[in-house]
Amino acid sequence: MKIGSLNPYTGAANLGRTVLAISRSLERLSTGKRVNRPQDDPASFALSERLDSQVRGLNESVRGVNDAMGLVQTASTAYSSQLELVQRMREIALEGSSSTISSTTRSELTKELQGLLDEYRKISQNTSFKGIDALNGAGITLALGDEAQLTEFELSDGDAASTITDVVGTGAFAPSKKFGSTLSSSSLVDVNNDGHLDVVGMATGGGAIRINLGTGNGNFSPSTTFGSSTGGLAVGDFDGNGTVDIAGNIQSNIVWYSGAGDGTFAVAQTLSSGWDYGHLSSADVDNDGDLDLIHLNDNISTGSGTGNWHVVLNDGDGLFSAYSTTALLKGNAGTYLDGLALKTADFDGDGNTDVLINYSYDDGALSYAFEVAYGNGDGTFATATTVWQNGSSTSIPDVADLNRDGFDDIVFNQGTNIYALKGTGAANFVTATYSSVLTNSVSYVQIADYDSDGNLDIVPGRYSALLLDGAWGIKENRNFGFTSAAGGPLIGDLNQDGVNDVITVAAATQTIYLQKSREVSGLGKVSIETTDKAARLLSILDRTIENLTENIGQAAAVHSRLDQYAAGSLLMSETLSEAKQRATEVDFALETAELVRLQILQDAQVAVRAQANVQLQKVISLLNGL
Questions:
Q1: Long-range contacts formed by 228-232: CB under 8 A, 24+ apart
Q2: Which residue has the higher pLDDT, 511 or 36?
Q3: Distances from the Cα of 339 to the Cα of 16, 170, 435, 474, 607, angstroms
Q4: pLDDT band per the 50, 70, 90 thresholds, residue 2
Q5: Contact predicate 396/488, CB 8 Å
Q6: Which of 145, 168, 141 is nearest to 155 (CA)?
Q7: From CA 573, how far away is CA 593, in angstroms rounded?
Q8: Using one digit for the tens of pLDDT, what is the confidence trace for 105-124?
Q9: Closest CA relative to residue 309, chosen from 345, 270, 351, 359
Q10: Which of 72-76, 165-169, 600-604 shows the lowest mean pLDDT across its residues?
Q11: Is 410:355 a contact under the CB 8 Å cutoff?
Q12: pLDDT band at 211 (very low <50, low <70, confident <90, very high)
């Protein structure tokens, strides 16, 4: 009998492999993973590690995104807090724009305004998230995705100097554009309620009233015409319906046209005055809330008496009836008078409308005079006072509170000099002279904040601008190279960028000069010391509200983007985790069946091994008996 066929080691090896297979099967069942070590399945193990790396990268990226969302939310909350402060500051600016509040109230409002500004600055300086300045405008850089791709998210600068801003003119003008035709008695006003300045005037020497509608970007529509006027024009809401109306002279009649609010007009009333054509102005002279008309004849030949000016009262429903006639102070019977201009203001600070009358007269020698009639507030006027008179011709004057002292001033040109009659609040003026500031005399002088620095400047009709420092001093005598025929420049914000632009009237057309602008900090102008400063602050705060609203919108957009990325990353992480699980997880049904098979095999192998051992013992026993 051959012994070798009964080699017990072969059965032992088989049994050992079965035991090892059972051990690994139990391990797979207990861990739920098919691949627990590289040797189980090298390819699946490598795939599992790659997927695990991606999942971990995505999860870490989501944690970074959540931190970034916290920073964005902090910044957004700070912007909202600043917006609340600015809304209250705007309320104060609105109140400060009124001339009816007392100095004590203005002082208290100023204290509150400065307190709000200090709190605004604290929010800008102290808002942080995990030690990071949330409002410095540096933005957020995140390593996104499993490959750590650097991505930047922009956040606006919330610093006070960057959000409380003003727009100023640079003094440089874009190339000119021409439109329309030569006009006289022209003005800038919104006649169609679209928020854009339009040009209203009449043909030079009298004729049809012309309108060029502004588009808000520095351009104007072709002229439309209606009615006519042989004298000046007055513009205002005469019937109180919220739309602009226009009044003009037609020989001895005064005609006013009611505006429809769309740039069209219709005759509302023809008032037969018996006066010759002349200059018109509108103001509420009787304090009833309705605009009245003031009239001054243009050419007055007084063969039988002195020249007159007139007041026509509005009866409250847009119709004019009662009127008064007042004699000019200068000029005797047989002299010649020429009405030059009418201006209205409150020169003595009593709250009533006063009238400045500019005229020339020939009483043996040609002279020029300004006289002021002080209003009583009921449509009547005290005896006028002559505030300027000499034999040299003057330009058409302009009136404004040039030095912000609360009293209106009169500015005009004579020769190469500019004169300012400084209002004192009483029935007298103090003369200031800007000597030899012009190379030629001009026909018109206008007052406007030409360089948007918050101070009113003097703009002579043709050549240059005297940029003032707010205290009668000349900051700069700047020549802008404009030329304009009689009629002077029109000054206003034609393209809605916050700075004044210019329209000049030349031989046969009007020319637009758009001033370039730049944004600067408005912190130095947070003041309501005067009504003008309060009005300026109002525009600054409106811009601040726009800036903060934009910041909040940008923060919301960044937050939404991060939120979407976080949601997408979590979904991708879950997907990859499932893929990893499918690559390595055990099939419990198959593995359990395999375990049962191995256990049966093990039992059989043990039984066979035992039987082999018994047979071997019998052989050995027989051999021992020999």
A1: 228/202, 229/185, 229/202, 229/255, 229/277, 230/206, 230/277, 231/185, 231/206, 231/277, 231/278, 231/279, 231/280, 231/298, 232/185, 232/278, 232/279, 232/280, 232/281, 232/298, 232/342
A2: 511
A3: 128, 38, 27, 31, 137
A4: very low
A5: yes
A6: 141
A7: 33
A8: 989 999 999 999 999 999 98
A9: 359
A10: 600-604
A11: no
A12: very high
Whole-angstrom CA distances from 93 to 87, 108, 113, 464 are 10, 13, 9, 33
Q: pTM for this structure?
A: 0.71
Q: Are 549 and 83 in contact (CB under 8 A)?
A: yes
Distance CA 527, CA 442 (A): 36
What's residue 185's pLDDT?
Answer: 77
First-to-final CA distance of the chain: 15
Helix (H, G, I), strand (E, B) or coil at 370: strand
User: Which strands form 501-505's sheet, in the order they lie side by side?
Assistant: 177-179, 510-513, 501-505, 490-492
E strand or H helix at 254, and its extent?
strand 253-259
- Structural element, H or E, at residue 479: strand 474-479
Q: Which residues pair with 316 in a beta bridge?
A: none
Rounded-to-integer distance, Cα 599 and Cα 29, Å:
14
Sign of CA dihedral 110, 114, 115, 120: positive
Average pLDDT over residues 606-614: 73
Find the range with the poorest average confidence among 284-293, 370-379, 565-574. Answer: 565-574
Question: Band of the pLDDT at 6, cuts 50, 70, 90?
Answer: very low
